[in-house]
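User: Please fill in residues for this 355-position structure.
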């Protein structure tokens, strides 16, 4: 069995390398599909495989940057990345992230960081899950009401339409974003990215978990463009984070490269799947992922509240996160295969009709 273990030269630990590839494939699929870096799944996964937590975070960021680069290039080919929007949002993201990180340093000095960050995380995840499912419920209601009077709802219509109100703000400069098909003040995406960057800095995550729904509900991006543009942002912030952690000697580049082998395959699958699973299919799956993430954090908190059952709660949190990665990857992969088969069958039918 020695063949399946490889020594990590910087961390000084032996790691089961097939586990790194499996983790890379799973998170690559999910990241390419949802536009998230997946820090909330990879970091605990690496820790379980044997990495000290600091190395798990640094290695995850390095892997996230490489995976997001692969996914961004693929999404760009499908026209899913609004580079202008991504670059404008970058300014707000960087400033917000730095302010959030400084607040964490202050909370650490007063010894309250764990408590406040975990509660904020739970509140945030609950709000995101509520937004997603309230949006889906409102869209379904609109469809039922339209069907009752013999009409059809516009395919681009959404349930929650906060972005329409925000688009009425006309503070110069006004900018047209071609891929996102929106025209608004440049200050809207800057302000939204500042808030999401601030939250990401406090929570210590890449920000995709927050930024993707913010792009949909506040900026007004179509879901597939929100995914691609968010990945572009994750790529840039990930490259910056990789440089920082590598300088501090907390990045295991060997592990990151092994994971990227799996992620390169997974990211292609996840990205191509957005071609066949549009809009609300992505949103519902994302909402379920958010609920799973929130439950795993709650289990980790319960491990501290009830020390006698701590081991059981920790194990349940781990199984939930890894099970979520596996289930979501399988769902996305199957839906992609079904969509691709239907597309091939349609093309064959068109060819036979033409002849």
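Assistant: Residues filled in for all 355 positions:
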């Amino acid at each position: 069995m020695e063949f399946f273990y490889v020594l990590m030269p910087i961390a000084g630990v032996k790691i089961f390398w097939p586990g790194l590839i499996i983790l890379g494939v799973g998170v690559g699929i999910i990241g390419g599909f949802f536009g998230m870096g997946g820090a909330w799944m990879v970091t605990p996964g690496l820790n379980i495989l044997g990495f000290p937590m600091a190395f798990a975070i640094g290695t995850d960021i390095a892997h996230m940057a490489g995976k997001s680069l692969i996914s961004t290039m693929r999404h760009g080919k499908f026209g899913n990345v609004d580079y202008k929007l991504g670059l404008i949002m970058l300014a707000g993201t960087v400033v917000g992230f730095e302010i959030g990180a400084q607040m964490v340093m202050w909370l650490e000095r007063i010894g309250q960081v764990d408590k406040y960050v975990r509660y904020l995380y739970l509140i945030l995840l609950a709000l995101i899950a509520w937004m997603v499912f309230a949006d889906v419920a409102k869209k379904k209601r609109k469809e039922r009401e339209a069907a009752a009077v013999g009409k059809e709802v516009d395919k681009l219509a959404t349930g929650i339409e906060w972005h329409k109100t925000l688009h009425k703000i006309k503070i110069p400069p006004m900018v047209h974003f071609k891929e996102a098909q929106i025209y608004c003040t440049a200050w809207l995406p800057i302000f939204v990215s500042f808030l999401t960057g601030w939250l990401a800095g406090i929570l210590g995550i890449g920000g995709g978990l927050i930024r993707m729904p913010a792009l949909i509900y506040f900026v007004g991006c179509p879901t597939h463009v929100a995914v691609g543009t968010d990945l572009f942002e994750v790529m840039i912030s990930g490259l910056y984070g990789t440089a920082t952690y590598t300088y501090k000697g907390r990045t295991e580049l060997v592990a990151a490269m092994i994971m990227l082998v799996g992620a390169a395959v997974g990211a292609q699958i996840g990205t191509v799947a957005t071609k066949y699973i549009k809009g609300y299919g992505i949103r519902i799956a994302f909402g379920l992922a958010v609920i799973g993430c929130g439950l795993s954090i709650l289990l980790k908190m319960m491990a501290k509240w009830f020390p006698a059952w701590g081991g059981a709660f920790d194990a349940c949190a781990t199984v939930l996160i890894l099970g979520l990665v596996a289930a979501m990857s399988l769902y996305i992969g199957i839906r992609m295969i079904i969509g691709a088969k239907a597309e091939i069958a349609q093309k064959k039918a068109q060819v036979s009709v033409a002849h």
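For context: The chain has one domain: 2-349.
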